Amino acid sequence: MEALLDAPQRPGPAAALEALMARGAAFLGTRYAILGGAMSWVSERHLVSALSNAGAFGVIACGAMMPDRLAEEIAATQALTDKPFGVNLITMHPQLMELVQVCLQAKVGHIVFAGGIPPAPAIRAAKDGGTKVVCFAPAMALAKKLVRSGADALVIEGSEAGGHIGPVSLTVLAQEILPVIRDVPVFVAGGIGRGEAILSYLEMGAAGVQLGTRFVCATECVAHANFKRAFIRGAARDALPTVQLDADFPVIPVRALQNQGTKRFLEHQAAVVQRYKAGELTKEAAQLDIEHFWAGALRRAVVDGDVENGSVMAGQSVGLVTQEQPAAEIIAELMAQAGAALARRSEGN
C-alpha cells in the first residue's frame, strides 16, 4: 500500500492534453493550439474573433484584399476580440510588402504566408517588425529551407484539405516531417475533424493543428445558409480535386464539393483545348481561359449561395460536419473527444 501511495501520480487527461499542446499554445498565445484555417470570404472578422474568444487562434484570410481593406478588417476584428489572432497573406499578392506593413501597424502578432514560398524581404520585414512568421511546408526540403529563412513555425497541410492542395496526404507528411523538424513548432492540417485525430498528431510531435472545414458551419460564420447546408449534406467522397484534362494545360488542383460547376469545368477545358488545337487560340490564351473559369466562383458560393455553379471548397473532413454550432461548442467538443481518447488509453494501461 505504501508503495502505491509513494508512486508518482499521472496527470489527468485534461492536464496531459494541455501538456501536449503547451508548445503550440505558447507560440500562439492561446489556450488551445488550434488554428482556424484561412478561407477566403469565410475567415473574416466574425468567425476569426469567435475562434479566438473561444480559446483557439483565428486567422483572417486576406486573399485579394487591398491594404486599406485589410486594415479595415483587422480593426473590425480587434473590436470583437482582445485575444490573439493572425492574418494569412498570399505570397503572390502584388502588394505583399504593403500588406505586411498593414499587419505591423495594427500590431498583429502572427503573419501566415501561404500560396508559395514567401520572398525573403517579406519574411525579414515581418520579423523586424516584431511579428511571428508562419509558413506552409508541403515537403521536407521546403520545410528545412523555410526554417533557415526565418520561419518561426510551420504548417504542413495534406491533400485531404479543402481549396488549393498539394499531392501528399497529411498521414505521410506527418511521418516525414514531424520526427525531423524540431527547431520550430509544426502544426498539421488537412482532413482533421475530430479530437481523436488531434490527439494522435500531438502524440506524433505536432505542436498543434489547423482546421478549416470543421468551422464553416460555426454559427458565427457569415457563409450563406446554402453553403453551410452543402457542408452538412456533404460526404468525404463528395470533396474531390479538380480534374486536369490535358497535360499541356495544367490545372492547379482545388478540392471542392462536386456540383454543376465542376461538370461544366470539364466541358470548358475540353472546348478550350479543341479551340487551341484548331488554331483559334494561342497556348497562352487557352491557359488563361481555363484558369479564369473559376474567377469569382468561391464568392458566388460563399456569399451569394450559388452552390451549384460556384466553387464549394471543402476538405474531406466535410463528412464530419453534421450541424451548425457555435465556435466555442465545436472547440469544446474537439477537446472533449481528445481528452476522452487520452483517458481511455490511460485506463487501458
From TrEMBL:
<keyword id="KW-0560">Oxidoreductase</keyword>
<keyword id="KW-0285">Flavoprotein</keyword>
<keyword id="KW-0503">Monooxygenase</keyword>
<dbReference type="GO" id="GO:0004497">
    <property type="term" value="F:monooxygenase activity"/>
</dbReference>
<keyword id="KW-0288">FMN</keyword>
<dbReference type="InterPro" id="IPR013785">
    <property type="entry name" value="Aldolase_TIM"/>
</dbReference>
<dbReference type="Pfam" id="PF03060">
    <property type="entry name" value="NMO"/>
</dbReference>
<protein>
    <submittedName>
        <fullName>Nitronate monooxygenase</fullName>
    </submittedName>
</protein>
<dbReference type="InterPro" id="IPR004136">
    <property type="entry name" value="NMO"/>
</dbReference>
